[in-house]
Specification:
By secondary structure, the protein is an all-alpha fold. The chain has helices at 2-11, 24-29, 32-35, 40-48, 57-70, 74-100, 103-115, 120-124, 129-150, 154-168, 177-186, 203-211, 213-232, 244-263, 280-299, 305-318, 340-356, 360-386, 391-401, 406-418, 422-435, 440-452, 456-469, 474-486, 490-503, 508-520, 524-537, 542-554, 558-571, 576-588, 592-605, 610-630; strands spanning 272-273, 330-332. It contains 32 helices and two strands. The longest helix has 27 residues, at 74-100.
Length: 631
């Protein structure tokens, strides 16, 4: 009851929240694959795609299931995140209690895990489904492992492997699980004792390591898959982008800052910009602090073995995301603490239990103090969760925490664009560029907004500046080509599409748009060739199917045109233009009844669609004339 009340007090508000203009639209709202729900095509995509720089099919499948059950509204996605987090709290408590039999400390760990403000990001942000889902399987794997240790069978060992694989298919951060198994072997499962026969160099220790080898092999395979996916999407920072010495300094400082936020969760933000420099002093201080804590926990390893498990749990599970291999522009992230903080909570809970043993008065007052701490943390988490209500509240809070937060300013601009406020979007993008003048995303976003406002010449200047900053980024050439085509400068647009394709030959969007442009230039053969290549690269590209249908219809290839319009509709069920054009094809194939249904569907999706209305009226008139002729 306590765990239930805590979790739903903090997070019960989120089902009414919106999607956020930070991955949610990329992952879900604007993702045509997710919009299909659990279809065979979508399932195949989930297992074969590295979309958004991740290979995590279990996470995609959970989103697809949400669509089938709840539809595309944010409610269902938020609700699932809450349920997964709640189950994680219950299972964490249950697994720890199964291994230790200590009710009080297990309840304390579960409660702190459930309501800590650092965990808000993982639950209230729909895109972080991978956190709560991977942790769900990770905790189940730990429970299965504890059961295997108590009664080893191949079936229980296989169950551990199954849950481990499902966790890896949700988020690659789970690769540290074999290391956690070794820590659990030390305490609380007591399978080795570093002070006796099972020392680090003993046969007993290596027997336990050998037992984990299949899991270590899985961790290696999934680590390679994760790196490949990140590299394919350009998410990994190269050595030239962020100096390795700076990464090491940031990693050391981040370990300490995460601890600071654990005890004093103040000024939390969705994004912490990477510092341009970190002086040696704080990095050395952080390293010394970490070494001191390591020394202390090892010194007390006999009397307080949970300190060893808890501290190295914290250090070890943060390794994949601590920034030595840098992904993105953030220095650290609250969501990375979701599993690592369990180690700190274990240290605190069992140390308190040992300290309070045999001291009933002190135990009574400590219970009161813990209740006050829980209420304070819950209130802070409740307040932090409220910032995730929508993109405006979230990013305005991020800017309030750090006025130099250029990504928050950029994302505010993206949000204002979605709300139809281009002037405010321009203002936000310009502020972001003041904070980070070479931020390629803000340069492109500002230029794109100016194009929509009709200020094309001004927009071109920002695109050219973006090319100066990062000449190897194909996206800028693509955006520049779109702007040039919008101003009727087709030859220059074609040149920039080709430049984008020189950098990224598998850029399906550039291939598709180049094909459309060539069709406008009366080079239909070349246009069809490029659109076909776009479809070979991405068979689920709805716009390319639509454009291929247009080209085929102009060549009176009606059956093939109908096929491609149909594919576009299956991929994007809200594609009004595809419904309309398919209706036109069906009309020309003397299938007027079907044409009428498609025109009506186009109008249901887009009530002000004049072409669809005119086509519907024309078809109905033709059908009436046909019926009169028959009579």
């Amino acid at each position: 009851m306590i765990l239930t009340a805590g979790v739903f007090w903090v997070f019960g508000q989120t089902p009414s929240y919106d999607f956020l203009a930070y991955d949610d639209y990329v992952y879900i709202a604007d993702n045509p694959h997710i919009q299909q729900g659990l279809t065979s095509e979508a399932i195949r995509w989930a297992f074969t795609s590295t979309y958004a720089n991740f290979w995590h099919p279990a996470t995609w499948l959970s989103y697809l299931l949400d669509v089938d059950v709840f539809g595309l509204e944010p409610f269902g996605f938020h609700f699932t995140n809450i349920i997964l987090h709640y189950l994680n709290c219950l299972f964490l408590f249950t697994v720890l209690y199964y291994m230790t039999g200590a009710l009080g400390p297990c309840l304390a760990v579960g409660l702190l895990f459930g309501i800590h403000p650092l965990h808000v990001e993982s639950v209230a942000w729909v895109s972080e489904r991978k956190d709560v889902l991977s942790s769900f399987f990770m905790i189940l794997a730990m429970g299965a492992y504890a059961a295997y240790v108590k009664r080893p069978t191949w079936g229980r060992y296989a169950a551990v492997g199954l849950f481990f694989i499902l966790g890896l298919m949700s988020k690659p951060m789970v690769v540290t699980l074999p290391f956690l198994f070794l820590l659990l072997d030390y305490w609380p499962l007591d399978r080795m004792n570093l002070m006796s026969r099972d020392s680090l160099g003993s046969p007993g220790f290596w027997r336990l390591v050998k037992e984990k080898m299949p899991f270590l092999g899985l961790a290696l395979v999934f680590s390679v898959l994760a790196v490949v996916a990140q590299k394919k999407g350009g998410a990994l920072a190269s050595a030239g982008e962020i100096d390795f010495a700076l990464r090491v300094k940031n990693a050391l400082v981040s370990y300490v800052l995460y601890l600071k936020s654990t005890f004093f969760p103040l000024k939390l933000s969705i994004f912490y910009p990477y510092p341009e420099a970190i002086s040696t002093g704080p990095a050395v201080g952080a390293a010394v602090f970490i070494l001191i804590v390591c020394t202390v926990v090892l010194y007390f390893r006999r009397s307080c073995p949970w300190l060893v498990t808890g501290w190295f749990w914290y250090l070890g599970t943060l390794v994949p995301v601590i920034g030595l291999v840098q992904v993105g522009d953030f220095a650290m992230a609250d969501r990375f603490t979701y599993i690592p903080l369990v180690g700190i909570f274990i240290m605190l809970a069992w140390t308190a239990r040992k300290t309070l043993a045999g001291r009933p008065v002190l135990k009574k007052w400590s219970s009161v103090l813990f209740a006050i701490i829980v209420v304070a943390l819950g209130a802070a988490a409740h307040r932090q969760t409220a910032y995730f209500k929508n993109s405006i509240t979230l990013f305005e809070h991020a800017v309030a925490v750090n006025p130099d937060n250029w990504l928050a300013l950029n994302n505010l601009g993206v949000t204002y664009n979605k709300l139809g406020k281009p002037e405010k979007a321009v203002e936000s993008f310009q502020k972001a560029l003041v904070k980070k003048p070479g931020f390629i995303e803000s340069l492109n976003n500002l230029a794109g907004t100016l194009v929509k406002m009709g200020h094309i010449e001004e927009a071109l200047g920002y695109y050219y500046k973006a090319i100066e900053v990062m000449p190897g980024f194909s996206g800028t050439y693509y955006n520049l080509a779109v702007a040039l085509a919008a101003s009727g400068r087709y030859r220059e647009a074609e040149e920039n599409y080709r430049k984008a394709l020189e950098i990224n030959p598998r850029d399906a969007e550039s291939l598709n748009n180049l094909g459309v442009l060539q069709e406008r230039l009366q080079r239909n053969g070349e246009g069809m060739k490029h659109i076909q290549k776009a479809l070979e690269i991405n068979p689920e590209y709805a716009e390319a199917h639509y454009n291929m249908g247009n080209l085929l219809f102009k060549q009176s290839m009606l059956e093939r045109a109908a096929y491609h319009y149909g594919r576009a509709i299956r991929i994007r069920p809200d594609y009004a233009e595809a419904y309309n054009n398919l209706g036109v094809v069906l009309f020309n194939m003397n299938r007027q009844e079907e044409a009428v249904e498609h025109f009506k569907t186009a109008l249901r999706i887009k009530p002000g669609y004049i072409d669809a209305r005119n086509n519907l009226e024309k078809t109905l008139e033709a059908m009436e004339g046909r019926n009169q002729a028959i009579q």
